């Protein structure tokens, strides 16, 4: 047994996410319905664990929004499940918030093929993380989020170390206390949902916890950037029939306008929901709406205040 293997085994034994639960040692003997009930009960504890980190999450989001408002990117980096969750969150931002794919980026150790098949040794390389960020040309305006359930994954730690050295904002999201990842980042977020139902299977509660936090980071950052009007997704990109129908419904909910007026406004605004809403509520044409949104940096409520009282 190598010294490195022995050290890693000892390290894993100290992690909450790797802890063995003797009370579940006979879980394979239980009826399916009882196992499902156990899993459901375990999952119900995750939001409470997230709630304990809300102040740290909010601080990280405000800092992220500040960087993105001046042109920075949000970059998620992780290995395995953590990396896949980052890629998933990033890939959902363009259709939801009309962001360019380059604005919110998900990188997984080992590259795109690692989304469906493990890439041997990729997560163990700090150097690989530095290479991935170098290829992106990370700058001081960017935010890099290292994601790791254990909080010890070299790829995630290497990502925040490299980014921080270049002045970027760094966030370390882990599911263990006193993690190396949180210590390496400017903003450490340690959501600790406890030992897993299956020992060490961090795609379960830890994965759910990370998904919830990533939802918060991207969604609330986009709210701060003016991508919503109230709780309406006014920057939605209508790339399919369902989203086209949703676009029309959003304009209707925001304005109360009849269908014919909504169709006319959307056509004049080239399908841009935010522009169509401003046109209707402020009674202005498409070029004027576009200019006022440009001046307000895309914030619809601010653009409406500039033209009169907000409905």
From TrEMBL:
It catalyses: N-acetyl-D-muramate 6-phosphate + H2O = N-acetyl-D-glucosamine 6-phosphate + (R)-lactate. Keywords: Carbohydrate metabolism, Lyase. GO terms for molecular function: lyase activity. The active site is at 92 (proton donor), 123. InterPro entries: Etherase_MurQ, Glucokinase_regulatory_CS, MURQ/GCKR, SIS_dom, SIS_dom_sf. The keyword Lyase applies. It is an enzyme of class 4 (lyase). Pathway: Amino-sugar metabolism; N-acetylmuramate degradation. Its EC number is 4.2.1.126. Residues 64-227 form the SIS domain. Homodimer. NCBIfam families: N-acetylmuramic acid 6-phosphate etherase, PRK05441.1, PRK12570.1. A lyase-type mechanism (elimination/hydration) is suggested for the cleavage of the lactyl ether bond of MurNAc 6-phosphate, with the formation of an alpha,beta-unsaturated aldehyde intermediate with (E)-stereochemistry, followed by the syn addition of water to give product. Belongs to the GCKR-like family. MurNAc-6-P etherase subfamily. Specifically catalyzes the cleavage of the D-lactyl ether substituent of MurNAc 6-phosphate, producing GlcNAc 6-phosphate and D-lactate. This is N-acetylmuramic acid 6-phosphate etherase. It comes from Streptomyces flavochromogenes. The gene is murQ.
